[in-house]
Design a protein that fits this description.
This protein is α+β, with helices and mostly antiparallel strands. It has 2 domains: 182 residues, Phosphatase 2c, domain 1 (4-Layer Sandwich); 49 residues, no CATH class. 34% of the residues lie in helices and 9% in strands. Strands 1-2 form a two-stranded antiparallel ribbon. Helix 1 crosses helix 2. The longest helix has 22 residues. The protein is globular. It starts with 12 loop residues before the first strand and ends with a helix.
Length: 244
């Protein structure tokens, strides 16, 4: 596991939990502050454990969805308690060669992807501005790129879209329904005998490394320190792009 701090305050969190139930890996990509990522790191797995215990320890897609919803509701309650003293909490959030084939196990919930924009337009048919192109980047309501998140409550509950939050986050009009969703997309992959490893990372890696490049690095090097090696490769690529 490796982390590079890109902002003044480290907004991202990660965790690995392992036991008789299997292995739980979380990479929480925060923006607008560290609050949600820290809250999710502290509560999502606990909620998953509690809910699965009610089902004799069995984890199903419904168990996972309920754990996300319970975590979302818990953080929204925290926002309700803290909003007047810390309105910024309402704008915080937490959104996979050499003979080895790379299989992407998840997709981004990012408005730059056409399928995500289509999903948003389908869910909000009466809002022509649900996505907007700003400075060459598609954003939800012209503000943020993610379409699903825990947090970002100002985009879900009108009472937090007030003059108390920063102007750059404020929506120009009240919304009839939540703009973002905390419902996760769930993909199941049956582990095969030839499967070698998994790479869990936020977009800080994938913006500068293709699936194939990341898999080749892991496949061709010792596992010890491999997370740092992936981060170093991404930083080197980012530096090259900045120069050229």
């Amino acid at each position: 596991m490796a982390v590079v701090q890109a902002n003044q305050v480290l907004e991202d969190q990660s965790q690995i939990e392992s036991g008789s139930f299997g292995t739980f890996v979380g990479v929480y990509d925060g923006h607008g502050g560290p609050d949600v990522a820290r809250y999710v790191c502290d509560n999502l797995f606990r909620n998953l454990q509690a809910i699965s215990a009610e089902n004799y320890g069995v984890v199903t897609p419904e168990t996972i969805r309920n754990a996300f919803l319970l975590t979302e509701n818990g953080f929204t309650a925290l926002v309700s308690e803290s909003f007047n003293a810390r309105p910024s909490i309402a704008t915080a959030k937490v959104g996979n060669t050499g003979g080895v084939a790379a299989i992407q196990l998840s997709s981004e919930h990012n408005a730059n992807l056409e399928e995500v924009r289509h999903e948003l337009k389908t869910l909000h048919p009466n809002d022509p501005d649900i996505v907007a192109l700003k400075h060459g980047v598609w954003r939800v309501k012209g503000i943020i790129q993610v379409s699903r998140s825990i947090g970002d409550v100002y985009m879900k509950h009108a009472e937090y879209n007030t003059e108390q939050i920063a102007q750059k986050f404020r929506l120009p009009e009240a919304t009839a329904m939540p703009i973002l969703s905390a419902t996760p997309s769930i993909i199941t992959h049956d582990i095969q005998p030839n499967d070698c490893f998994l790479i869990f990372a936020s977009d800080g890696l994938w913006e500068h490394s293709s699936n194939e490049e990341a898999v080749e690095i892991v496949h061709s090097n010792p596992r010890s320190g491999i997370a740092k090696r992936l981060v170093k490769a991404a930083l080197q690529e980012a530096a090259r792009n900045e120069i050229f």
